[in-house]
Amino acid sequence: MLDDDARCPCGTGETYGACCGRFHAGRPAPTAELLMRSRFSAFAAGDAAHLLATWHPGTRPAALELDPGRRWYRLDVHGTAAGGPFDDEGWVDFTGHWRGAPGTGQRGAQRESSRFVREDGRWYYVDGVPG
User: Fold this and answer.
1) What's the domain count of the chain?
2) In this predicted model, what pLDDT tens digit does every residue of 44-93 receive, in sequence order?
3) What residue stretches are annotated with the YchJ-like middle NTF2-like domain (predicted)?
4) What domain range includes position 62?
5) What own/partner pairs with CB < 8 Å and gap ≥ 24 does 22-31 have?
6) This prediction's pTM
């Protein structure tokens, strides 16, 4: 896990404890964008439990194995549609950047438009379309 005083990987400029750490501890994200940011931080922290807990039960896999050779280090949010505190559906368009294991020189990025739904006051990731 990440140190609460470290800068949050999601790119808001806040500390992990004040930003995504609160969602990883179980607090519901108030918007689709904040849930997406917390999911990116979960990838960066290796927190598969948070990823599964915030994945909609209708599309959630039975298990999730994260690639230990990939370090997610930067998130760029390009835009959102709906997904606010009074919406029931929303989309977030983003790019996540990663590096491979030290010494490999591997780098990459994944662009995606993710769909989220809010049920019983909680946002869930449903699916995404590569961009």
Assistant:
1) 1
2) 999 999 999 999 999 999 999 999 999 999 999 999 999 999 999 999 99
3) 31-128
4) 20-130
5) 23/50, 24/50, 28/121, 28/122, 28/123, 29/54, 29/123, 30/85, 31/83, 31/84, 31/85, 31/90, 31/123
6) 0.95
